[in-house]
Amino acid sequence: MTDHAERLTAAKQRVGAFSKSAGKTMQGFAAIAKAVAEPGEFSAAQKELIAVALSVSKGCEDCILYHLSAAKRLGATEAALVEALEVAVEMGGGPAVMYGSRALAAFRAL
Amino acid sequence: MTDHAERLTAAKQRVGAFSKSAGKTMQGFAAIAKAVAEPGEFSAAQKELIAVALSVSKGCEDCILYHLSAAKRLGATEAALVEALEVAVEMGGGPAVMYGSRALAAFRAL
Amino acid sequence: MTDHAERLTAAKQRVGAFSKSAGKTMQGFAAIAKAVAEPGEFSAAQKELIAVALSVSKGCEDCILYHLSAAKRLGATEAALVEALEVAVEMGGGPAVMYGSRALAAFRAL
Amino acid sequence: MTDHAERLTAAKQRVGAFSKSAGKTMQGFAAIAKAVAEPGEFSAAQKELIAVALSVSKGCEDCILYHLSAAKRLGATEAALVEALEVAVEMGGGPAVMYGSRALAAFRAL
Amino acid sequence: MTDHAERLTAAKQRVGAFSKSAGKTMQGFAAIAKAVAEPGEFSAAQKELIAVALSVSKGCEDCILYHLSAAKRLGATEAALVEALEVAVEMGGGPAVMYGSRALAAFRAL
Amino acid sequence: MTDHAERLTAAKQRVGAFSKSAGKTMQGFAAIAKAVAEPGEFSAAQKELIAVALSVSKGCEDCILYHLSAAKRLGATEAALVEALEVAVEMGGGPAVMYGSRALAAFRAL
Questions:
Q1: Mutation to test the E interface, candidates F97, F102, F108, most E Cβ within 10 Å
Q2: Mean pLDDT over all residues of chain D?
Q3: Under an 8 Å CB criterion, which residues of B touch D?
Q4: Element (H, E) at F77
Q5: Over the stretch E26-59, which tens digit does the pLDDT of each residue have?
Q6: pLDDT for position B2
Q7: What is the pLDDT of residue A1?
Q8: How far apart (Å, rounded) are the C-alpha atoms in residues C27 and C14?
Q9: What is the distance between the alpha carbons of residues D15 and D22, in angstroms, rounded to a whole number?
Q10: Given a cut of 80, is residue A2 above it in pLDDT?
Q11: How far apart are CA E107 and CA B89, in angstroms?
Q12: pLDDT in tens, B35-69
């Protein structure tokens, strides 16, 4: 984890290239992402934090960076992030501690 | 999924029996659950819904029932549940559709 | 696994109910499913068998039934199913043996 | 979980049928299982309990039954089972509590 | 992901070292890999692409590199790879988008 | 994997920072870890090796390093590690081969 912002940029470039090849599939995925992004009972920032908790649960570091960055842009606080990560620890044990700790470090670095 | 309430009761009885044998470990787990249950930036009901989303992601039906039931008791609305499940679909694809659909059916039945 | 066809019907009904509540998200998911269904380098039946292998890998029984049924309707042979399941065993060990065996039984029963 | 022994028998029959269709793959898998079964630094019973912990981690109920049954036949004690399940809880959180509780109930019932 | 070929070589060396220590188990695994490699209803290249889809689903980067490399050596086209990755996205959502995008980048770089 | 000891130190620092923010949750987690660490039917070193097998199954490299390091400190032999990894291969196939091979390399390097 040398440079979180750089790694996020690289992930987005890879997804951009994949989207050119898998256009229709990725249009469907973008439609899901757009629907999820609409605020409702949860704010948009809270929804991104749920996505972070799920990313931690899956151990997907590119996903953690992507959704952390979105959450931060939408105004998510560190306190709210930590709460979402704590639920991930309840549901994931040790691996969630490890990836959750990575998520907190990334949130502070981004 | 004949009787959701019955299945939840059976799950709780099994966990009760396990807790007698694995006392110290389960005391630690209970401490995590208690910490997570405290309202903060997310309400207690919202945290249970995040736990439902994580349960859907893991495909753990006992977990879905347990956290759905807690969410409902804390006043979670169906609209908020659906939003949490939609994030799970974004992060989990087809299996999240299947377990999310089970979660919605259970929420209505419980 | 008393009645595979009945369980598949129940799963589809649950997904139908979820789709009413999570309309935009499920429209995006349907767009992905439609894009994936188009034959290309893999036939449509082969793609459904890849989805079965992934379902076995996730241990999602509703998914196994759903994609097995679609594969069968598209003319997938048992021999092709077994090959896809063998790749799942290579990549998943014991759990893939167990869910793969369930998939074969379901294919014969559906 | 009405009848654990019956469910185990059904799982073994399904695996038997799959093994006929996927002969060479399953011969390779059987060779792995045989190699793992040899006692070494861990006894054969202890190795089966590690397999139970991994089955709990994967949420694979057929696997839990299969390896629990083997562990019991090899003389594994309930105390040793509980210890293996506690490690699974450390590494898996809530879902491991749920599947671990199922494993303990099955051990007592088998 | 600085140098894909270098990382693949390192992975193969690690597996080689493990195979010396875990000889019988790895002979069983090699037998599975050999059985899976035989062309049938799916070509050998197609089977490697299914293995790539499963690797993406598991988020295992060493596996992605290993099976991508084998697929490429067997003549798999980029179009076929993308189709397999699209099924992975259908069955895995966001994390599959991220690992699938890594797989496409690796395929082009190898 | 340039420097295993350095990567382990970084992981522990991240967990330390997370523990400051998620105090009560991490106290509960520490209580679980303490309960699991007590020798019983399995020695403390054996329990750490079970945790390594579970870490391999989850594909969590920070977890692998953490529990490998603890196992080594408690006197675990390479032979016992390999046996635990072989069970992980039985229950996890190719990804377990890859992460197990990483675990063996790390054990030798630490």
A1: F97
A2: 97
A3: 10-11, 14-15, 17-18, 21-22, 25-26, 29, 32, 51, 54-55, 58-60, 62-63, 66
A4: none
A5: 999 999 999 999 999 999 999 999 999 999 999 9
A6: 58
A7: 46
A8: 16
A9: 10
A10: no
A11: 28
A12: 999 999 999 999 999 999 999 999 999 999 999 99
- d(C-alpha C67, C-alpha E35), whole Å: 24
CA-to-CA distance for F77 and C105, rounded, in angstroms? 43
Compute the mean pLDDT over every residue in chain F, rounded to the nearest whole number: 97
Comparing CB atoms, the residue among E25, E33, E34 nearest residue D36 is E25
Q: Per-residue pLDDT averaged across C44-56, rounded?
A: 98
pLDDT recorded at residue F12: 98
Chain C, chain D: beta-carbon pairs less than 8 Å apart? 58
Q: Nearest Cβ partner of A25 from E78, E89, E99?
A: E89
- Mean model confidence pLDDT for chain E: 97
- Structure token pair of residue A90: 């309840």
Contacts of F32 in chain B (CB under 8 A): 25, 28-29, 32
How many angstroms away from the CA of A23 is the closest CA of chain F?
A: 29
By the 8 A CB rule, do D80 and F41 touch? yes
Closest-CA residue in chain C for B84? C22
Complex prediction ipTM: 0.97
Q: How far is D38 from chain E (nearest CA, A)?
A: 11
CA-to-CA dists, residue A96 to A29, B50, D85, F25, F26, angstroms: 26, 14, 18, 12, 11
E42: left (phi over 0), alpha (psi -120 to 50) or beta: beta
Q: Of B91, B97, B98, B99, which to mutate for an interface test with E (greatest number of E Cβ within 10 Å)?
A: B91
Interface chains of chain F (3 or more CB pairs under 8 Å): A, B, C, D, E
Q: Do A90 and F14 touch (CB under 8 A)?
A: no
Q: How many CB atoms lie within 10 A of CB D9?
A: 12
> Could you tell me which chain D residue has the CA closest to the CA of E30?
D28
> What single string gives the DSSP state of each residue in chain B?
---HHHHHHHHHHHHHHHHHHSHHHHHHHHHHHHHHHS-SSS-HHHHHHHHHHHHHHHT-HHHHHHHHHHHHHTT--HHHHHHHHHHHHHHHHHHHHHHHHHHHHHHHH-
Residue contact C62–B90, C-beta within 8 A: no
Predicted confidence at residue B81, as pLDDT, reads 98
Lookup: tokens for A47: 């929804």
Query: Over the stretch F32-72, which tens digit does the pLDDT of each residue have?
Result: 999 999 999 999 999 999 999 999 999 999 999 999 999 99
Q: Where does the pLDDT of residue D55 fall: very low under 50, low under 70, confident under 90, or very high at 90 and above?
A: very high
Q: In the numeric block, which tokens belong to residue A80?
A: 């709210």
Considering only CB atoms, which residues of chain B are within 8 Å of chain F?
22, 24-25, 27-36, 38
Residue with tokens 């959180």: D93
pTM over 0.90: yes
